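Reopening this one. Same input as before:
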Amino acid sequence: MTSGPVATVLPFNPSILGPTAPITTSFVVNWTGISGGGSPIISFDIFYQFNGGAWARWQSFPANTTSARFPFPQLGLGDGGYGFEAIATNANGQREPQTFIADAVILVDLAGAIQPGVYLPKILGHENSVVADSAGITQK
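Same output, byte for byte:
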């Protein structure tokens, strides 16, 4: 049993949003949580990081919401790498600590400019690297 709530952003499928995607103004972020501590989750805070920059809180969602569209153009963002981290809070006020490490990553390449095998240097604060190729994003 965990001592407090735990949340995670689920992997993106597909992991690259390209110019032929049916919707190019947003993408869906999905997350899940485990209450822990004997108290139900009451909220999820979803954080994002763009191209290895600073982490920002996107939104806080009630416990019954585990999916939402991320409208990156409305946030003044465009092509690049996005990392997401979910943080849960339970009814006892226990809040999962933020790690500043992406649970899941997606690459937005609407310009079709990223070539197979392009190395994206430590894009999301990982100790590993992220490589974009025709198969998607691979963490090494």
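So the earlier flakiness isn't reproducible anymore. For the record, Residues 116-140 have pLDDT under 50 and may be disordered.
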